[in-house]
Specification:
Two copies of one chain form a homodimer. By secondary structure, chain A is mostly helical. The first copy, chain A, has helices at about 5-20, 30-35, 40-45, 50-75, 80-90, 105-125, 130-145, 150-165, 175-190. Chain A has two domains: about 1-45, Arc Repressor Mutant, subunit A (Orthogonal Bundle), CATH 1.10.10; about 50-190, Tetracycline Repressor, domain 2 (Orthogonal Bundle), CATH 1.10.357. Chains A and B meet through helix 6, helix 7, helix 8 and helix 9 of A and helix 6, helix 7, helix 8 and helix 9 of B. The first copy, chain A, binds a DNA duplex through helix 3.
Chain lengths: ~210, ~210
Amino acid sequence: MSANETRSKICEAAIRAAARDGLLSMTLDNVAKEAGVSKGGVMYHFPSKDELVSGVLEYFGNQVEQMVLQRIADDPNPRFRWARSMLTCLFPDSPSDNKTDGSALSPEIVDGFMLAAIAAAVNSPGLIEPLRQVGLRLRQRLLSDPEDGLEQLLVWLAVDGLFLWQFVGLIRRDEPLYAEIGAVLRAKVGAASNVPSGRSAISGEVQR
Amino acid sequence: MSANETRSKICEAAIRAAARDGLLSMTLDNVAKEAGVSKGGVMYHFPSKDELVSGVLEYFGNQVEQMVLQRIADDPNPRFRWARSMLTCLFPDSPSDNKTDGSALSPEIVDGFMLAAIAAAVNSPGLIEPLRQVGLRLRQRLLSDPEDGLEQLLVWLAVDGLFLWQFVGLIRRDEPLYAEIGAVLRAKVGAASNVPSGRSAISGEVQR
DNA sequence: TGACAAGAACCGACCGGCCGGTACAGTAAA
DNA sequence: TTTACTGTACCGGCCGGTCGGTTCTTGTCA
C-alpha cells in the first residue's frame, strides 16, 4: 500500500472513530486501531497529534473546497452561485441517493469535514488557521457580490448552523425537517433538484 | 459565601478557562484554580467531571432560556416573535452597550452557553440530552407557527451558524460584518433597535 | 536475472506526565 | 452539629511521544 493511501486511510479512520465514540476518542491508539495500522505507523505519517488533526482537517477540507469551487466554476448563472454551490454539494437532494458521479459530496465527507474542524478548534486554536484563511477568502469573494452577498452569507450560516445542530444532536439527517430545510434553502437561491439554473417558486426579491 | 454562589463561581470559571485556553484546559485542577477554590471544593459541588460539565451547561442554559422565553412572553406582536426574541437576546444592538436592565444577555453568557454546549457534546454525548430536550421543544413550538415557522427557523440556524464561525475563528464580535449580519437578521424579523414591534424596511413577504 | 544495499513504510513495547477520582484530617461559620 | 469548604497526599489509567527494530520496495550493478 502506498504512503498516500495509508494517510487517507488514517484520516478517514480518525473521523470514523470520532463520529462513533466522540471527539475525545480520537486518540493515537484508537485511530491506529481503527485504521488497522500500528501506532508507530500513524506517527510515521503524522509526527504529532497536532499534525494528525491538522492533516485530517486538510484532507477533508480539500475535498469540500475543491467540490464547492468547481461547482461555482461550472455554474453558468452568476446569481446566487456561491450559496447554490454549497447547497448542492452539502445537501444531497434526497438522503438515499449516493450519486457517484461526483456531483455532490457524500455525507461522510461533509460530516467529516465538520468534525475535523471542531476537533482542530478543540485541540489547539492554531490548528484551524489554514481553514480560517480559506473561510475568510471564501467569505470575501462571496460578499463581493454587490447585490446578493449578505443574502448568500445567511444561507451559508444556516447550513453551518445545521451542522452545529447535528453535532449537539438537535437534528438528524433522516428527520423530515432536515430535508425541508434543505428544500427551503435551495429554493431561496434557485437551486432546483437537477436544474441548477432553475427559477425558484418561493424566493421572491428579498434584498432591498 | 453561600453554596450557590460558589457553584456559580465555579461554572463561570470553567467557561472562562475554556474560552481563554481551549476546551481541553477545562480540567478539574484548572477550573479549581481559576475559581479560586480547591479541587476538593469543586468535587464537593460536582462529584464528577461529567456533573461539572452538565452543571455548567445547565447554569448558562437556564439563563439563556429564561431570557428568551420572557422576551417572547413580553412581545405583543406574535409575528416572528420567536426569532425576534432570540435576536434581541443574543445580539446586543451595539457591541459596546452593556445594558444592565436585563433586556439582553451579556456576550459572556451567550458565548458561555455555546462553549458549554460544545464542551458537553465533546465530553460525552449523554450530557447534552437536557439541552436537546429544550431545543426540541423550542423547535416544535416555533414550527407550530403555521406561516412563518420555517422562516424563523432559518434565522435561528443562522445565529447558531454564526456561533460556530466564532468558535472556529471565522468571525469575531468586533468585526463590522458581525453587526451587519445582526442588522439584516433583525430586519428580517422586524426587530428594530428599540422598538420590538417595528416594521422592517427589508423583509418583504418571503414565505409562499 | 538475481544479489544486494538503502531507504521508505511500519511495528509495538515502553516511558513520563497529566487527569479524573479518592481519602481524609482539619476548620471556620451558621 | 451541620454545612461548606481547604489542603495534601495519593492512585490507576490513559495519552502523547520515543525508540529500536522489522519488513517491504526500489534502484543498482555484476
